[in-house]
Amino acid sequence: MPATTVVVPAYNEAGRIGTTVAELPDEHSVLVVDDGSTDATVSEARSAGATVVEQPHNKGYIATLKRGVREATTDIIVTFDTDGEHRPDDIKKLTRSIAADKLDLVLGAR
Prior knowledge:
4 helices
């Protein structure tokens, strides 16, 4: 399986970000892009094992995702929110066809 980075956009997600990062599969790199949080999001994400990229000002969800995609260095990138709507086990389902060179892009919907 090619290397995968899970990009997690975050803005004031203290109390949830650590759990989200901890629930992600260990075989993936986790990159939290902090969008100018004023709470403990950054320290909780780092404590849970994520690499954190900090944006100094709140630039919004799309800008945060774009930053994560630019910063990721792996062949496969998955975006993952902290609101509990995504299931960590679904990452393998999403990336399976990409890893097998059958597809270049897979989009999941809630």
